[in-house]
Amino acid sequence: MDADDGAAAMDTTAAASAAAATDASADANASAAAGTAASAGASAEASAEGHINGTPLPKLVDGWPQFPTVRERYFTTYTTGNHQCVHHHSNGLLVLGVSPDHPSLQPPNRVTAVKFRSHDGKNLLNTAVSGKKKAGAVFLSERDMVCTIDISDGSEVTMYACVRGNVIEINERLLSHPELVSDSPHSDGYLCVMLPKLQEKRDIGKACSEFDHTVLIKPSGNEKRRQEGKAVRSKGAKRARGGDGLPAPCWNFVNRGECRYGDACKFGHGEQPPAAAAEHGDGAGQATEAAAAAAAAAAAAAAAAAEQTPKTESETAQADQPSAGVSASTKAMPDE
Predict the structure, then answer these.
(1) Does residue 294 sit in helix, strand or coil?
(2) What is the CATH number for 218?
(3) Rounded to an integer, what distance in angstroms lies between the CA atom of residue 78 and that of residue 190?
(4) Are both 249 and 222 inside the same structural domain?
(5) 97-101 own/partner pairs: CB under 8 Å, 24+ apart
(6) pLDDT digits 0-9 by tens, 279-298
(7) 18 belongs to a structural domain
(8) Which tens digit of pLDDT belongs to each residue from 20-31?
(9) pTM, entire model
(10) Cα(first)–Cα(last) distance of the chain, in Å?
(11) pLDDT tens across 310-327, in order?
């Protein structure tokens, strides 16, 4: 091979290598551009949705990252029509709280007192929950009151359970620091922790919607009577259905003359019945004397009625015959 042919072959090889290098560089640049575009798209998507693969992104506050709270990461929050918050944890537990946008809690109003339910058998202040099955927990329906919140303007707000379940813990810290309801409604200012019914654990949103419809839109009990302008019934009082407005009589007091509830009984206590009073007197002698006196009075009344009744002729004749017989026998007897 001549020198000229070798030089030409070397030039061809160099040109091919240069072209290949150029194509590789172009491919690398295109790949880098595609990667940059994909990263920019992913960043835009992440920033738009606020999370990556279900994990919330931290927010920048004054140049510092602010990571999501435990409530934002593990709880799903439902807000009812009366501005209550039901935080549903992934394990099924519920944390009941107050929404920060509650109209009664807006400044300058402040919470002055939190009063948990304690006026009846569902006493939340004396509950002692123990064991895996949460023995001793108080069961509340969606319309049952959990507590009342006193506001600095003199008003009072009632907080409901919103969901059927057992109250396994109340925030006793609110008794001494009620201002936490206004300052930290989503953390330290929670009201109670509830364990919902098994069939409602996965459908808390539906339960909250039913609460809005059945309790807030169609109230019952004293709340309904207030809206209709009627008098509010006393706590636990059962009224007679006759329309007289008086409480039903107490069976124990009427039949036994005593009631272990006394003045706290939700039924009516009229005057003590005479029979019950005689039975529960100082002794059996008093009851016997009273019965004897009543029998004597009845006999005297019967005798008086018999004397006043006019006699017929046959009765008069029958009454005279024994008298004549006695007289004849007396006359027939010889004189001594």
Answers:
(1) helix
(2) 2.40.50.100
(3) 14
(4) no
(5) 97/185, 97/186, 97/189, 97/190, 97/191, 98/149, 98/159, 98/181, 98/185, 98/189, 98/191, 99/185, 100/185, 100/186
(6) 444 444 444 455 556 667 77
(7) no
(8) 555 555 555 555
(9) 0.51
(10) 204
(11) 555 555 545 455 444 444
